Amino acid sequence: MLYGAGVCGGSLNAENVKRLTIIQRVFLLKFMKVYKTTSTQVLVVLAGILPHYLPVKAEFQKFQVWVCRSSEFGLVLDVGELDHFVKLPSVPIEFRIIDLKPQISNSQFEVYTDGSRIEDDCRLSVCILKNEHLFKIFKFKLSKNNTVFLAELAVINFAVRWAKENGFKINIYTDSQSSIEALWSASPRSAFLIETKMNLYLAGN
């Protein structure tokens, strides 16, 4: 039933969710052998199965991220000079410890970021969704002197700057645990990390 979900999942509205729920309910009633008056919500809990529209939405979002990563990269992102060491006392205290909220409820966009490096090819992409529909894609290359960590950090920094410059509220999704831990760190020494934390701080205020 998930065939084509990566493509058609973007058209999943309330009516389509209702249709999927009705179809799933028929199978759950036969599978669980319970009274027909049992609610669908109870059926999915008893069966230990997710409501079918949730995997459909997940497949669509994964496909959108894949599209961002697989497209041709035509732009070169200028991140300035190579990263360098900064003495901690010179870093303003408000930029050392920032409040990273797991998610905000009034987000206008969901932003998926990804950076990668294969040999000398360092790339990053930003996939922006609005109401679960593709809104915009940014794709960049970095010079071969950059690391995959800097690519992951640069793409987060770009997303924050994009939101700040346009006055948007966004949720950012990244699979880079090292970037998250670096942003949580209270002792940043990397100039580029400090710049990213500064933009996050300013965007939150």
SSE layout:
Elements lengths: L4 H4 L5 H19 L7 H8 L5 H18 L4 E2 L16 H4 L12 E10 L2 E10 L2 E10 L5 H19 L3 E4 L3 H8 L6 H13 L2
Parallel strand pairs: 1-4, 2-5
Antiparallel strand pairs: 2-3, 3-4
Note the main attributes of this structure.
RNaseH_sf; RNA-DNA hybrid ribonuclease activity; 205 residues; RNaseH-like_sf; Nucleotidyltransferase, domain 5; 5-stranded mixed β-sheet; alpha/beta; RNaseH_domain
Brief characterization of the structure:
This protein has 205 residues and is of the alpha/beta class.
How would you explain this protein's 3D organization?
The structure is a single chain. The chain has helices at 5-8, 14-32, 40-47, 53-70, 93-96, 148-166, 177-184, 191-203; strands spanning 75-76, 109-118, 121-130, 133-142, 170-173. α2 crosses α3 and α6 runs parallel beside α8. It has 205 residues and is α/β, with parallel strands linked by helices. β2 and β3 form a beta hairpin. It has a 5-stranded mixed sheet with strand order 1-4-3-2-5, sandwiched between helices. It is built from 8 helices and 5 strands; from the N terminus they run ααααβαβββαβαα. The protein is elongated. Helix content is 45%, strand content 18%. It folds into 2 domains: 5-66; 88-202, Ribonuclease H-like superfamily/Ribonuclease H (Nucleotidyltransferase, domain 5, 2-Layer Sandwich), CATH 3.30.420. Residues 107-183 form the RNase H type-1 domain. Pfam families: RNase_H. One of its GO terms (molecular function) is nucleic acid binding. This is RNase H type-1 domain-containing protein. InterPro entries: RNaseH-like_sf, RNaseH_domain, RNaseH_sf.
